[in-house]
Design a protein that fits this description.
- This protein is an alpha/beta fold and 373 residues long.
- It folds into two domains: 240 residues, Spore Coat Polysaccharide Biosynthesis Protein SpsA, Chain A (Alpha-Beta Complex); 121 residues.
- The protein is 54% helix and 11% strand.
- It is built from 13 helices and nine strands.
- The strands form two sheets. The protein has a seven-stranded mixed sheet. Strands 6-9 form a two-stranded parallel ribbon.
- β1, α2 and β2 form a beta-alpha-beta unit.
- The N terminus is likely disordered.
Length: 373
Amino acid sequence: MEQFAVRTTIGISELTIVLPTFNEVENIEPILQRIKAALGGMAWEVVFVDDDSQDGTASAVIQAARKYPNIRMIRRIGRRGLSSAVVEGALSSMAPFIAVMDSDMQHDETLLPEMLKELKSGGYDLVVGTRYTDGGSVLGWSKKRELISRIATRTAQVLAGIEMSDPMSGFFMITREAFEGVVRQLSGQGFKILLDIVASAKPPLRLKERSYQFRTRQYGESKLDSFVAIEYAMLLLDKIIGRFVPVRFLLFAAVGGLGLFFHMAMLFLAFKVFQWRFDISQAAAVTLAMVFNFLLNNFLTYWDMRLKGARQLIVGLLSFFAVCSLGAAANVGIANYVFTNNHSWWLAGIAGVLVGAVWNYAATSVFTWRVSR
């Protein structure tokens, strides 16, 4: 009760700084020291959003809270993602201004007062720290990584129609009014929350860019992996066509198309090469194709909630088999109904495929890749 009383005397902070964390135990105390030095006696708070780190990050935050009464933590179990972490952290606060930074000290916290001043002037909704204008730079990057970043930046500018030098930046500050106005349109996918915000905002946000020097990481390891490219591509597609059809459904359908080719290849191998009976060959091809579709969907379509370990994979595969068997029955039933009433075999076939695909996508999203784990 005494701790609660102390917190309520602080009041609402003017600025909330959201710091997503995943295995950042060594960075907690240093980043807090830097933020405190930059903001001084200003009314600020830090919200750590930790995705179930296994290195003691949460304990480090709890320890730091004994010295910094204006820090809080959201611990997320069973879900991950920088964008969704930022959204949850921002929504947990009541401050009129929200800053987003990485916890690894690569962003320049000394810019925070200037960014806040720009927003408080009323002329801007969003201030972005940029690496790619005069005065901005990147330290310690290889030419390959810098080239990839430049390509990703240019792709976002062209495809999403974004007029800013660094839409891939993870360092920005936004007014609460602007954030609340766009939050329901966000996809919440991947690492590029700024790109999501700017591409989703209608009308466009009033934007100011401030250059800074992107530092090298002090502790820990980069969280970027091969799936970042998938997440980035899906985010761009969602901003372009997501209003018409879910991007994940398109991936699911594409995997189904590949599964059809795989099925025919297995059928040819079993029937023509091994000369099995056709019914046995077809059954083997169907089974192998379903396993192929399950594994590829687990790797690609549901990369952010993919099943791992023998138990999860076996349970997931069995549920996938069950769902797709019902989907096949729906496919045949609808196709037969359309054919009986319209006598168009090709229209009947398409109708059956569409119904089966929609059922399989919807049902596996619920029963296969949303199982408790």
